[in-house]
Amino acid sequence: MSANGSSETGCRSGVRLTNDTCSQKELSVTASVISMTVGIFSNSLALFILVKSYNRIRIKSKASFLLFASSLVVTDLLGHLVNGSLVLFVYSSHKKWEKFDPHHIVCTLFGACMVFFGLSPLFLGSAMAVERCIGVTRPIFHSTGIASHHMKRLLGLTWLLAALVALLPVLLWKPYTVQSSRSWCFFHMEEPKDWLDVLLPLLFSMLGLLALLLSIVCNTLTSCALLQSRLRRKHHCRGTSYHIEMICQLLAIMLVSCVCWGPLLICVIILSTKAKDEPASFSLLMVVRMATWNQILDPWVYILLRKAVLRKIFMLLQSSWGSKSHNLYRWQRSILRSSVETSNSGAGPPDCPCLGRLPLPDTAIKSIT
């Protein structure tokens, strides 16, 4: 609320601004406040659910997955807190960087946080996809060769890599610059002066795209392996239930990351490799706001795509489709009757243990006896 009031004061100050400009400022501040509030609430709720599941789960593979998932939610939560606070501070100072940041400290911190909290979720998502791919395709190696301290080291390396990329502009004396909208800081994107102005944004974008590509490949391999094991009936149905839950969550995270981060990463590549005569702040700011929704949608994947929630949704759908379930029972009864007749004629019993989990009506049981 204080940010809105400060923006109104800036509109009424000595510089004459139009009503459209004032309304755009108020709209930007309001959107930032709403995004920050929703993001903190969503990630806090998802973190509570994941920590509760992590304390309850004793399966090693799922414990590793929940460790990465909890770290991803914590990273998103800190991203909303830090970046949101910096945005509100900039708006409350009327975007006068020359007055409140004469030594370029706030801009450097802002740009480094934007890069770190942008790359970290992408790296964590790819690490989760790799871990699940190994756990499903190489279960013996995953259970014997990968310990919990290996997962914690991998988690630390992902954060360290993201921090290193975020600190590269400072280490190479190519500091972050205030963008044309004067509401945030990022790489020097307009009219690059030397090869470092091109290399740093390209490194950011290429690492992000590589993480997305790695997630797509690993999740595809894992999904195909689970589907193949189901078709060949190599695993018991109960043994792969938590694998399927994690794969659904990973696919949702991958889809959200591609939709939210893909435009920004591609836009950064285009802007950094192409000389421009006019500022591209509007397009860049729009894709940045689109990327922030990744940190809002990620926690809802863990909130909604859980077995308990999916089971309740399935039960509601099953109760609303009473007539269809009745037809399903009739179909099951006919299939079961034909299988009994086939077994009486000398054929072997069906080899799918998963059918035993489907509820059968009393009439079907009577037909067997």
From TrEMBL:
Keywords carried by this UniProt record: Cell membrane, Disulfide bond, G-protein coupled receptor, Glycoprotein, Membrane, Receptor, Transducer, Transmembrane, Transmembrane helix
Organism expressing this protein natively: Scomber scombrus (Atlantic mackerel)
Protein name: Prostaglandin F2-alpha receptor
InterPro entries: GPCR_Rhodpsn, GPCR_Rhodpsn_7TM, Prostanoid_rcpt, Thbox_rcpt
Domain G-protein coupled receptors family 1 profile intervals: 42-302
Transmembrane segments annotated in the record for this chain: 27-51, 63-91, 103-124, 154-173, 198-227, 247-271, 283-305
Homology family: Belongs to the G-protein coupled receptor 1 family.
GO cellular component assignments: plasma membrane
BP-aspect Gene Ontology terms: adenylate cyclase-activating G protein-coupled receptor signaling pathway; inflammatory response; positive regulation of cytosolic calcium ion concentration; response to lipid
Compartments where located: Cell membrane
Highest taxon of source: Eukaryota
Membrane topology: Multi-pass membrane protein
GO molecular function: prostaglandin F receptor activity; thromboxane receptor activity
Gene3D superfamilies: Rhodopsin 7-helix transmembrane proteins
Primary localisation category: membrane
